[in-house]
Amino acid sequence: MALPKRIIKETERLVAEPVPGIQAVPHEDNLRYFDVAIHGPTQSPYEGGVFKLELFLPEDYPMTPPKIRFLTKIYHPNIDRLANWSPALQIRTILLSIQALLGAPNPDDPLANDVAQRWKEDEPGAIATAREWTKTHATP
Amino acid sequence: MGNTSTKESRGASPPPHHHHRNSRSFSGPSSSSFAPEMERSGTSSLRLGRRHRGENFEAALLGLNLNHSHRERERERDEGPYKSREERRAEREAEKKKEREKERERSMAEESIDGGYLVTVGVYTGVEDYNLKIVRQLQIERRLAPFWRGLPDHEDDWTDAQLVAAAHLKPIPDADEPVPPSPTKPSTTSEDLTRLTVPMASRSRSQSYGSDASPSSSTGRLSSLSLSSSPLAGFTRPRSKTLGFSRSSSSSNTAPVETNIPSRTVNNRPIEAVLYENASECPICFLYYPPHLNKTRCCDQPICSECFVQIKRADPHVPEHSPPNSPTPQPADQDRRAHAGDQLVSEPASCPFCKQPEFGVVFTPLPWKRGLVYANQSHPYSVQQHSPLSYNSTTSSTSSLPGTPNGTRRNKTYAVNAPEVITTDRIRPDWATKLAHAKNQAARRAAAATALHTAAYLMNNMNNQSSSSSSNPFSSRRILRRMNNSSSSITPNGGSGNATPAAAASTTSISMPEPQQQPQQQQHATTGAMPVPSGNPPSALHNALRRARMVDLEEMMLMEAIRLSLAEEEERKKKEEKERKVKEAKEQADAERNAAARLATSAPEARRSVDVGKGKGLAGKLDTSSVTRKSEEGQSSPTIGFSAASHHIKIHRATSDVSSSASSMKEPEAGGNSDDEDGTEPMFNFQSLAQTLMEAEDDNPNNAVAGKGKQPEHIENIIPTIATGEGKKDEEKGSHNENGKATEEPDTADSKTGVRHESVRIGQETA
């Protein structure tokens, strides 16, 4: 099936004007499938890490959100808890919001409950763990 | 029945349907199914024959075959219409699709609205589940932007010729290329243009749209705009007459008649050039459209009609942030059932840009009209009355220059009920029906759960109180409470979390055999008399009779459905088991020479006798059977677990037979050999009564059959429901939802229960 113009344009724009700290490269054999690398924001426990994700644009994208998965292990209370999707959002915006989430963990809206718990009770410890994981798993 | 529901037509559900159909045709009603059916009856009769050696073997065989043929006929009668219904649906859908495709082609070739189309151009490939008629009408009324073709690219400095080429998706010519003649109509004279523009002006004059107020037409407003904008406003009435815009026609009150304004030029320029001159990008599909797109009512963002018709409510769901543990006491069963679906919600779509709920758009009509219009629009639009603010002046000033981008930001938001706002619900008026349907389904699921509760209570009751005669003919809940009291492990009002395992424990005979086959088997062997009611048939039957009166027919029907599928599955398992056993028995013959002969012949027989024995209360035989089984250990345990469970259901069937006289036409003879056919025969009776319960039953048979495949989970699913049904309301809700999820079987609305059993079972076999 022909690729919708929107996906083509989004891809073109991602390539033409890449977001700092974010790479998104479509697979050659499946242009709906992207390899994504997000650099950990500075001043965050994820600084220095490069987090690999996979992103897939389903058939009815943008009416349904892209599917995103972290491939790199990450210690974070609410990773991949994305904002409510709307078709007005884009690959770019969603990746940006993930990056922002790395910089500002929100343990009150947790996805990983144990991590969130720790984040609330022992934030320095949690941050230390996050840093450690970043070093172990996300440092190239 | 449900085949008009959009969800079904959306591609997600067809596969299961096909699967069902295929799997059914695998053992379908026609000649292909005859062989398996014969085979089955053959093996059964063989078994029977062994059991009744020297007795009324022939009668049994005959009876069995008779019943099988009964059932065969029943299934045939049943599947015939079902299959054809399926086919009809598929055909209808294919036809619909084809017709829609044709209609699209025709419409794109023949119809146009202001240089756009009345059908989607193809940005989205999914099924169009909005109301085509409503959208068409709104577009002809100029209340929703037409489906303009979105251009993949656009340059601001394109000449008219380039714009025209782009609009027709042709290669962009050089800038100095002359404008090609319009393919549909050669360039129009100014006389044409006059003719086309004037009628609207004259009409707008002739109409007094301040007085009438009908929100379904926008032409009045449009006319007022063109009045101010059209440079040719003063011209001629005769033309207007020829076009049907005369005063008389506009004041008549007939249904809208579509009239065509065929011109493809505006102000002597090709319509495409005018439209796409200052094209703007739709922020959702990223295509370039004429700068007259719909604007969101809340934040004034452009959105093309093609994207707009894609946005809709989410499917009905349970509210996300409902309090999980409300202390509301559990109302009566009936109330609970009635409210089970009420919590389902379906919020209106929210704006994709600003997330404001109740998404709606407003379309400002172009200052000129081409293509289809409603000739006799009798109900002038009433914008002035509803939004007399800056809106009109703004739009008329901007649109007075055709093709000029709408640079002025509207500084007004529209209320969702403003007459010019088109909401997503407006073009999908079936959302309420869908929600009601979902609620209905949930309520039926709740009813199914209630039926299961009742089943468990009855079983418990019969186990624990077969002799105690305290009867509560009106409240099955009280029965369980009583049971809870008697089984000291739980407090009657204890948290249902506690009640769950406790109830399960107290009802070992129902729930445990399947998840824990080995232990159960041991228990079986040691206790021997575990199936109390079977050892005590008169009192059990007595109790059952009494209970039967207090449970309504619907629940009984449900249990019947469960039992049927269980029995069918049992039949199948037995067959498998038997075949395996025969093999293994042969192997064992060498190892256990002393027991070999007995095993080979009596193993299947013993298994039969479990059922029959229980049904008839032959406790002694049961004991021997469990002993026999013990010697066989592993191989037979699944059967044991199953028989134990199905046996209880059988007792239920007995109650249902009594309660529902209609279903008892075959059952009263349940004492004798017909016990064997319990699994198959009652379907006949059941079907005749169960028409109204199909949906609810859909869940239960699936439940039951699924339970065969994944027994532990299944039991866990049911038992919590049972226990919590007794507990607090919120708990019940939770477990009910869980149950609903576990047994999710969308879109089975119109499949007949019997057939469903069949298809599910066969599906399992083939899987």
UniProtKB/TrEMBL annotation, chain A:
Family matches, as PROSITE patterns = UBC_2
Q: GO molecular function: any one?
A: ATP binding
What range(s) does the UBC core domain occupy? 2-139
SMART domains, alphabetized = UBCc (SM00212)
Which UniProt key words apply to this protein?
ATP-binding, Nucleotide-binding, Transferase, Ubl conjugation pathway
Keyword Transport among UniProt keywords: no
Enzyme Commission number(s) from the entry? 2.3.2.23
Q: Could you name the domain of life of the organism this protein comes from?
A: Eukaryota
Q: What class of enzyme is it?
A: transferase
Q: What is this protein called?
A: E2 ubiquitin-conjugating enzyme
UniProtKB/TrEMBL annotation, chain B:
Regions of compositional bias (Low complexity) in chain numbering: 24-33, 214-232, 387-408, 498-523
InterPro entries, per the entry: Sip5/DA2, UIM_dom
Name of the protein in its database record: Uncharacterized protein
For bias type Polar residues, the affected ranges are: 203-213, 243-263, 623-640
Q: Provide the Gene Ontology terms for cellular component.
A: cytoplasm
Q: Which residues fall in a compositionally biased region of kind Pro residues?
A: 321-330
Q: Which domain of life is it from?
A: Eukaryota
Q: Tell me the segments the record calls region Disordered.
A: 1-110, 171-263, 316-342, 385-411, 485-541, 569-767
Bias regions of kind Basic and acidic residues — which residues?
69-109, 570-595, 605-614, 726-760
What does the sequence similarity comment in the record state about its family? Belongs to the SIP5 family.
